[in-house]
Amino acid sequence: MSQGQQTFKLHLQLQDDSYWLGDLKLCRLLLMNDTQFPWFVLVPRITEISEVYQLPADIQQLCWQESNLLSLAIMQLFQGDKLNIAALGNVVPQLHIHHVVRYTTDICWPAPIWGKYPMQEYQQSEVVKIQQALRNSLPFEQMNQL
User: Residues in domain HIT (predicted)?
Assistant: First the structure.
């Protein structure tokens, strides 16, 4: 897509804490390795960007379109009560947008999830099931082979 994408590198913290599910036109889709919440992250594959406003207007629009597609897909798949979307960047400076499906019965409700409880890791088979379920809902350009 752009010169910045040719040198794109995912921040080490995101690599360590998530599974790569696949790439959309602009963003890499990650599943956070925490079974307590259906928690996904979109990372625009553009280097040295930490805020959405730093993206050109057409790329911002594509970013929000992909966020909307992901939102629709995960709310349909997980039947949540609420969807939290946030681009915090306080710990990881690389632009990334969290999409967390919330339930009124989850362990943190109604508080934010950040840093409340240790992450509960997925089994590989669970990640594969989630990826396969999303395969039909999202326009992946490249899928990770799990």
Answer: 7-109
How does 31-43 read in b/e, with b if 16+ C-beta sit within 10 Å?
bbebeebbbbbbb
- 14-54, pLDDT tens digit by residue? 999 999 999 999 999 999 999 999 999 999 999 989 999 99
> 3-class DSSP state for residue 61?
helix
State whether residue 53 is helix, strand or coil.
Answer: helix
Q: Which two tokens stand for residue 32?
A: 């956070």
Domain residue spans of the chain: 3-143
pLDDT at 68 over 50: yes
- For residue 141, give every residue at least 6 positions away whose Cβ sits within 8 Å of its Cβ, in sequence order, or none: 22, 23, 24, 25
H or E stretch at 40: strand 39-44
| Token pair recorded at residue 60 | 């911002």
What is the topology classification, in CATH, of domain 3-143?
A: HIT family, subunit A (3.30.428)
Q: Look up residue 136 and give its amino acid.
A: N
- Whole-number Å distance between alpha carbons of 84 and 78: 13
pTM for the structure as a whole: 0.93
